[in-house]
Automatic annotation (TrEMBL):
Coiled coil: none annotated. InterPro entries: Pirin, Pirin_C_dom, Pirin_N_dom, RmlC-like_jellyroll, RmlC_Cupin_sf. GO terms for molecular function: metal ion binding. Gene3D superfamilies: Jelly Rolls (2.60.120.10). Belongs to the pirin family. Residues 288-319 are annotated as: Disordered. Fe cation binds at residues 76, 78, 120, 122. The lineage of its organism: Bacteria, Bacillati, Actinomycetota, Actinomycetes, Pseudonocardiales. Binds 1 Fe cation per subunit. Transmembrane segments: none annotated. This is Uncharacterized protein. Keywords: Iron, Metal-binding.
Amino acid sequence: MTMSNLENRPALTPCSSAAEAEAVAEVLPARRVPLGGVRGLQVDRVLPQRALPTVGAWCFLDRFGPESARMRVLPHPHIGLQTVTWPLSGDIRHRDSVGSDVLVRPGQLNLMTAGRGVSHSEFSVGETPVLHGLQLWAALPAAHARVEPAFEQHTDLPRYVEAGTVAVVLMGELAGAASRATTHSPLLAADVTLSVGAATTLPLRPDFEHAVLVVDGAVTVDGTELSPGPLLYLGTGRTELTFTASEPARLMLLGGEPFPDDLVMWWNFVGRDHDDIAAARADWEGRDPARFGHVSGHGDERIPAPELPGVRLTPRRRR
């Protein structure tokens, strides 16, 4: 279920190119963020972090629910990114400006590529929806930042299975299981489920940096105990990662080559500099049909862009 950044006063998130890294184990707390437009819904935002704007190309990660709430998100724009929707419960109707009109269901990957510009909406389906899931954004590298917008839905994702462990590969490749989802930079996203007493070691690419977010239960990751909430950043240089679970657990494993580009992330836009963001905002507010198109079924209703801050937006270096 595709969540978006609906804050009325979005903070500037300037993200710089990655510095040299190494294998680490840093526990980074989530921020509790209220989302406008979804009554009573609060999310745990674990990316971006002040000290860690990206993990590979992954530049945004929210965990929402579980809670009973209705989603009613009117058309709104994106540029320069891919949105990855991973629902754990609840169905959402997704409509976008490239003509998609689909139900987003648990266990299915819904991937929207914004590129030069796209708009979409999300509405709950059913009488008593329970919203629970993850929303991720992957920044597009400079060579692909203005690709044509697109939408993909993948209902049969590859799995890596061993005793007590199932890893569903959303994007990229893990232990020989490779997703067909379109990627524009080397990256990984896998949903790993562990049964009681499970202990497994997954192979990793040492040139990737990795991070883990626990969704349910508790798990020990290479000696670090994790429960739902914080992000465990693991750096680069690892060839494998060991997970053990004393209770049923579920987690998201993320990875990717350290992202080489400077980024400025504001509202629902990912750009290279202030001018990218300002131009996208002006095009959305000006209802430019060539850039953001039209989402059918909502008439003229849409979410207006917030005001830009009174300073020029600049990238921020990761610590």
